[in-house]
Amino acid sequence: MLVVVGSDSRSGAGIAREIETIACLDVRTCLAVSALTVQTQEDALEIQVTQPGLVTGQMRVALQANRVAGTKVGMLATAEIIVAAVAAVLREHRAHIDIPDPVLASTSGRALLEASAIPHHEVASDALCRVDTQCH
Description:
The protein has helices at about 15-25, 50-65, 80-90, 120-130, and strands at about 1-5, 30-40, 45-50, 70-75, 100. The protein is an alpha/beta fold and about 140 residues long. Strands 3-2-1-4-5 form a five-stranded mixed beta sheet. The two termini are about 20 Å apart.
């Protein structure tokens, strides 16, 4: 399973939780990291968004190096990551989003998806979700 997701340094969500959950299903995970965060239970202290080109590269390598049976997206952070990376690479590889899990804000309420990116996330999810699964 290809997972495009951010980190959560307290391990409440993000990369750590995705790998744990998917491993419980006896499935291997490959990753594209969209952002790094410094978070506590009370606050998201810092957010470093990954450059879209780096997300694109991570996704391409993961798709080329592995037999990917599904894709899950979580924290995508910006419109550029959604459009220039995720949507573009999935179309290029004729892949789709199997599990859309949009992350809008941290537990403490800090925005983790730029407001301008919300319409792009909805359009990408609608366009790239599998036809035979319910995405919303």
